[in-house]
Structures are given as C-alpha cells and as structure tokens.
Amino acid sequence: MSDIPGSAKPAIAHGMRLQWEPAQEAHVLLYPEGMVRLNSSAGAILSRCDGVRTLADIVTDLERTYSIAGLTGDVTAFVALALDKHWLELRQ
Amino acid sequence: MSSATPVGHGLAAPNAAVGMSQPPRSASAPGPPLWLLLELTYRCPLHCVFCYNPTDFANTGQELGTGDWIRVLRQARALGAVQLGLSGGEPLAREDLEPIVAQAHTLGFYINLITSGIGMTEARIRALKAAGLDHIQLSFQDSTRELNDFLSSTRTFELKSQVAGLIRQHGYPMVLNVVLHRLNIDHVGEILEMAEAMGAQYVELANTQYYGWAWLNREHLLPSRAQLERAEAATRRFRERVGNRMQIYFVVPDYFETRPKACMSGLGSVFLAVAPDGTALPCHAARMLPGLQLPNVRDSDIRAIWYDSPAFNRFRGEAWMKEPCRSCPERARDFGGCRCQAYLLTGDADNADPVCDLSPYHHRVTEAVARAEQTAAAATGGVREQALVFRDHRISIAVVPGDPVRRR
Ligand code: SF4
Ligand code: SF4
Fold it and tell me: Does residue B45 or residue A48 have the better pLDDT?
C-alpha cells in the first residue's frame, strides 16, 4: 500500500465527512456512528485530499506551508494508512 | 472481535467500545456532549409486544414538538455536539422527521437515522437525502420473531430488502445492525450472507446487553461459550471470503469477558440522549439507576443539563468509585464499566461492573453463564416470545496516534 504514486488523487471516501469542529479545535472525520478526531498534521493532510490535487501536489503544498522539506515519505505513509482505514479513496 | 478491542491505536470502528484516547476527564471540566441521541417517538408501526421501550411508555409525558427538538439541536450543537442519532420507536413515525433533519444538517451535524425501515418510501428517502441525512442504519431490533422472518425470507425480509435497495440507490452508506442472542447466534453465517446480498457496507453483530426484559430472560438469551466460538468462527470465515468489501463488527457479550466495557468513556463524558418526553439521559438505560433526578429539556437548556445537573455529574470523575476500582490502575481505561450492570448485579451503581474479575461479585456473572450453559441444553420453546433487546448506541472516538508530519 505504501508505494502510492505521486500522481494518485486521494479524496475523502464516500460516506465520510471531514469538518472543522471549533469546540474540539480539530478537524474530525465523521462516518456512520463514529468520529475520528484528527491531530493537526492529519487534519492538514486530509483537508487537502479533494480528489483533484495529486499526492505530489499535496506534499509540495505541505512542505511550503510548514517550511519543511522531505515530507513525501511521511505523507505517503499516512495516506496509505488512511486508505487502509477507508478514510480516503483514490480518484482517477 | 474488533469492536471489543480498546481503540487505543486510533482505529475507530463505527460501533466500537468508546475510544480510550479521550483526554483524561475531570469532574470540573467535562468535554462537550459529542454524541446526541434523540429518541423522537415511542410510536412504532410494528407494535412489537416486547419492544425495548419502557413498558410504561403510554404513561410517559407527551412527545416533544418540532420546535422543542429544534431548540435541543441548536443548544447541543452550540456546545459541540456533532454526531446525531435519530431513533425511536420508529423515527419515521414522526411526520416532521424531514424538517428536523434539515435543521440538523444546516447546523453541521452528521446525521444517523436508526430505523426498522417500516414506513420508508421512495418519496421519503428522497426528501431525507435532500434534507441532508448522512446515513441510515437498518436495524433488526425488536424481536426474535422479526429476525426469524428475516431468515426465512418472509415478508420482513422482502421489506428490508426493498429498503436496503432504496438506501443503496440513494447513495447512503448502509449499516445493518442485528442483535444476537442464543436463539439466533447459530445463524450468523446466514445473517452475513443476507447482509451481503443486501449490499451492506457495515454489519454490526451486537450481542444482547442484559438490561430490562433481556435481563429477566438472561438465562435463556445468553449464548453458550460453544455457540459464541462457532459464531466467531463463521464470522472469520466470512471475513476471509469477502475481504474488506464489508466491515463486520462482532460484539462479544461482556459476560464472557474478565474486564468490563468502557461505557461511553464514562457517563456524562460524550453521550446525551433525549427521550420522546424530553427527559435527558446520560445513558439510554439510565432510568433504571435509583436516585438519579433526570432533567427535562422542557425545563432547562442543554448547557445547564450537561454541565450543571446532578444527574450528568453523578458519575463524572472518580470520586464516586468504590474499591476495587478506586485504587485500580485500570480505572482510567474502563471507568469501572457499566453503571447499569453494576446496579443490576450488585444492587449498587457505584460498585465495579461485576464483569470485572477483580469485583467481589464476579461470581454472579460466571454463575449466570454456567446456568445459561445448563439451560442451553434444554428446549427453549416458549422463551423466544419474551426476548427483548436494547439497542446499544455507541460511538467511537479516537485520535490519530503519532504525528504524521514532523514539525520543527
Ligand atoms: S476493578 Fe474497576 S477499574 Fe479495575 S479493571 Fe475492574 S472494573 Fe476496571
Ligand atoms: S448501559 Fe451501561 S455501558 Fe451502556 S451506556 Fe449505560 S452505563 Fe454505559
């Protein structure tokens, strides 16, 4: 799962909803009868997964926003985890 | 078994025992009521004689009106409530379900409808979608008879299939919830196959919780250990065949465990239910707990109910705990288990849940299991008519562990 190509376009999976919750000061993923409260990094990644931007675009954006280089491995690993948990799906 | 596993690793099963990764609670600073359950009505077209609703529901006060429910939604959302369950009775019996859903959607709730499917039509499912309903859980909640009908492909099955078809057609994620007990647990394989045929994405196989009528019929409803093992094996085989196309949550009856479930992260921690008459409950079964003065949304607002009422503060923090929980290193993980079970089995809601093998009352659980093993061998002819099961509303909350993005 962890060799997802940079051209893949991750999107929030069908039936899941990502939203910012002021009361929790966090992004949360909502799905049937459940909720995952995301830490700030996970929120930063998932909120960029719109099915339009590629994984490579998302990495570039994150590296720029947080002024850190070399995020490809970590972001890809998290996207793989999120795919595995059905939080994300890949779009063409 | 996945949902019996603590959610410390951040994997949140839709119906898992509540996540352990909640920040530590304290009586002084409870978090918001993240999970709001509105039991919109006790009415139900099924008229199941042994429905889980309170047996005296005809005497409970009048149902709240549309305006009351919308006020509750606004107040709860302002505190941070985000998961909304709409149940009953049969919530489709409320003609104002659509406007209630529309309001909840505008407020930003994720909306789960928990229904038997009776009363669902093409027109209503379309209107509910337009109003912003997120998800429909089709439940087999009412009686063994309903499930027997389902398994023998009679009218109920036809109806459920039609509703399942509508759910799929309109793009809702579909959860099928089946309550298990001794009389149906041997059919787990068939139940899963039917669920697959219906196109369910999630299936919850939740063993009965022993309260109310189910408590009275415990010895006839508790499966034997052998049944449980067979059911788990059938579930495993099915999982191997379908892979992750369908997610299955198998909830073991906690009588077979040696540690209790974590009960909603503790009463007054994340869950708030409102009964049709406006009574606010820290747990859907909390009416049984003696001495709890349950507030009503007609008299107080949700903020006062959640933060200030004695009923919602009663089991917050740890001060109420008795030994062995009070000094137990595991108390932050399971909060001493279920208050209702503690009360039912020991007569004192402040005791450890006797499912815990550190409880001096644990033998009451093991003896019940042993008695059930004996009666399991005997014929269970007239028993099924008495079976009554509570639906179990749980929510899983987890925080993604670790920090995927390094920061400097
Ligand atoms: S003694 Fe109480 S806190 Fe400790 S494990 Fe048992 S139920 Fe949990
Ligand atoms: S029934 Fe028990 S475990 Fe369930 S919410 Fe109530 S107190 Fe908690």
Answer: A48
Distance B45 CA to ligand 2 centre (A): 27
Distance CA B152, CA B144 (A): 12
Q: pLDDT tens across B109-142, in order?
A: 999 999 988 889 999 999 999 999 999 998 875 5
Q: Which CATH architecture has domain A9-85?
A: Orthogonal Bundle (1.10)
Nearest CB to A33; choose among B395, B405, B406: B395
Let me know the angle formed at the C-alpha of B383 by B377 and B389, rounded to the nearest 5 degrees.
110
| Residue type at B193 in one-letter notation | E
- The residue whose C-alpha atom lies closest to atom 6 belonging to ligand 1 is B356
CB proximity list for B206: less than 8 A, separation 6 or greater:
B15, B177, B178, B179, B180, B249, B251, B392
Q: Which residue has the tokens 């930063």?
A: A44
* Residue B294 token pair: 């349950």
Q: How far is CA B166 from the centre of its chain?
A: 24
DSSP B92: G
CB B104 within 8 A of CB B135: no
Q: Is the alpha carbon torsion for B134, B268, B289, B228 positive or negative?
A: positive
The pLDDT tens digits of the residues spanning B13-35 come to: 222 222 223 443 444 578 899 99
Q: Name the residue ranges covered by the structural domains of chain A.
A: 9-85
Is B405 close to A15, i.e. CB distance below 8 A? Answer: no
Nearest CA in chain A to B403: A41
Q: Write the pLDDT tens digit of every residue in B239-266.
A: 999 987 888 888 777 888 889 988 777 8
Q: Which ligand is nearest to the CA of B259?
A: 1
